[in-house]
Amino acid sequence: DVKVTQSSRYLVKRTGEKVFLECVQDMDHENMFWYRQDPGLGLRLIYFSYDVKMKEKGDIPEGYSVSREKKERFSLILESASTNQTSMYLCASSLSSGDSNQPQHFGDGTRLSIL
Amino acid sequence: GQQVMQIPQYQHVQEGEDFTTYCNSSTTLSNIQWYKQRPGGHPVFLIQLVKSGEVKKQKRLTFQFGEAKKNSSLHITATQTTDVGTYFCGTGNTGKLIFGQGTTLQVKP
């Protein structure tokens, strides 16, 4: 069974802090994704990566960056946290299969509060 | 960019009633995936549809992809309390998905 592990279930940080959210998957998936989930807005893609050292902007990348130094690990970085970044953050991974889609496997999420 | 609109946003049903959520797009979709997120949980993949007019069933769940590949539906027959959660549709290619806003289902016992 695919396991996607996010480092923290709950996190509280202060405005202006640099925040790191970590995600690790154990199934050798090429693709990894970071989403934020807000009521009424569904899942919005922040950044994604198709391979080590590669990253692509999603729909709402402003205020975020990512790092993929190893295939199994994809980190989301809030450069200077702001209160509007309070949200549930979900990491996901999937196999690469050319133009088609494979199922995405999600972690349990990190509920981040910025005070 | 590609967008999918999902309706309704919320649905409350009595246990035993049927439930349907719809996913609509103004453009032709190459595929559609459906996920379920239980309260307090994370989205879990249910199924993928790729062919025009495709219909797939999983026990009480029926998934359809429209003939024009611009819409999809998830129908649950005789809902149970275990069906509670938020159902998302998603579409895309090269691995990246765009998700609908989700439909949250509440089931009254």
Describe the structure.
- The complex is a heterodimer of chains A (115) and B (109).
- Chain A is mainly β.
- Chain A is built from no helices and twelve strands.
- Chain A has strands at residues 4-6, 10-13, 19-21, 23-25, 31-38, 42-49, 56-57, 64-70, 73-78, 87-94, 105-106, 110-114.
- In chain A, strands 2, 5, 6, 7, 10, 11 and 12 form a seven-stranded mixed sheet that branches.
- Chain A starts with a strand and ends with a strand.
- The model of chain A has no long low-confidence stretch (mean pLDDT 94).
- With 109 residues, chain B is mostly beta strands.
- In chain B, the strands form two sheets. In chain B, strands 2, 4, 5, 9, 10 and 11 form a six-stranded mixed sheet that branches. In chain B, strands 1-3-8-7-6 form a five-stranded antiparallel sheet, with no helix packed on it.
- Classes of the chains: A mainly beta (115), B mainly beta (109).
- At the A-B interface, strand 5, strand 6, strand 10 and strand 11 of A face strand 5, strand 9 and strand 10 of B.
List keywords for this structure.
heterodimer, A: 115 residues, mainly beta, seven-stranded mixed beta sheet, three-stranded antiparallel beta sheet, 12 strands, 0% helix, B: 109 residues, six-stranded mixed beta sheet, five-stranded antiparallel beta sheet, 11 strands, 55% strand
